[in-house]
Amino acid sequence: MQSIDARKKKVKSILVTLPKPDTEKSPYYDLAKKYNVKVDFRSFIHVEGVPAKEFRKEKINLPDFTAVIFTSRNAADHFFRICEEMRYEVPSELKYFCLSETIALYLQKYIQYRKRKIFFGKQTAADLAEVLKKHASERFLYPCSDVAAEETQKFLQENGYNFTPAVLFRTVCSDLSDLREVFYDVIAFFSPSSIQSLYKNFPDFEQNNTRIAAFGASTQKAIAERELIVDIPAPTPNAPSMTMAIEQYIKLVNK
């Protein structure tokens, strides 16, 4: 296996395994412009909603809950979708606990923001600890995917909250067959599911000179399990974001 140093070669193209940003304001576009590199986006996974017919089998009674915990915008989308499909009118007194302000503000798409009880943290369930303590008697619904964020679930369990996970959407591998003959200098991964998708599409994938950027411990672990090399890990103390980690790498190799 090549050493990390031996693999340090110039970067001309990057594939980011996320959906294409809605606006041109993405830091990835700034990166492309600044260093004259090609940056493409392609989501390796996508989300599919669980139909109401299937959700009914879970025997979860929506009126039983006094609060909802949202860990993503997907969770919010599928919660309101399932309510609509079940013809359940969301009560105005329902409380919303969101992992971040971004998710909280996103709720404006579905509810009158100012007239609802909405609480949010900075990024993790632990950030919500103080607020949740004050509302410990609530009956929480926890909309999630089939690969639920273990961290949040574990936090709720350990702190004895009365919560019910509801699988409302699934993470599915996307069809990447059109990428078969396309090669990138760097591929950036953000979840173990994306690694799974890579191998589902290309069972014989070989890393060769492709540098792998990986965000988060669980993603890095999934890559190591496949005996691949993580050339660009993130977050690090010097690079809290993926774009910063990639930029530091480019500065080093594109001299």
Biggest sheet overview: 6 strands, mixed
Cα-to-Cα separation, first versus last residue: 25 Å
Name the CATH architecture of the largest domain: 3-Layer(aba) Sandwich
Helix content, binned percent: 25-40%
Order of strands across the biggest sheet? 3-8-7-4-5-6
Number of domains: 2
Report mean pLDDT, rounded to a whole number: 92
Beta-strand percentage range: 15-25%
The shape is elongated
Q: How large, in whole angstroms, is the Cα Rg?
A: 21 Å
Spell out the helices and strands N to C: EHEEHEHEHEHEHEEHEHEH
CATH names the topology of the largest domain as Rossmann fold
How many β-strand runs? 11
Task: Give keywords.
Rossmann fold, 2 domains, 31% helix, five-stranded parallel β-sheet, alpha/beta, 11 strands, 255 residues, 9 helices
Describe this structure in words.
- It is a single chain.
- The chain is an alpha/beta fold.
- It contains 9 helices and 11 strands.
- The chain has a 6-stranded mixed beta sheet with strand order 3-8-7-4-5-6.
- Helix 7 packs parallel to helix 8.
- The radius of gyration is 21 Å and the shape is elongated.
- 30% of the residues are buried.
Question: Gist?
Answer:
By secondary structure, the chain is of the alpha/beta class. It is built from nine helices and eleven strands.
Question: Strands, helices and their partners?
Answer:
Layout: E1 13-16, H1 27-35, E2 38-41, E3 45-49, H2 52-56, E4 67-70, H3 73-85, E5 95-98, H4 101-106, E6 117-120, H5 129-134, E7 140-145, H6 150-158, E8 163-173, E9 186-189, H7 192-201, E10 211-215, H8 217-225, E11 232-234, H9 242-253
Parallel strand pairs: 1-2, 1-9, 4-5, 4-7, 5-6, 7-8, 9-10, 10-11
Antiparallel strand pairs: 3-8
Helix pairs in contact: 7-8
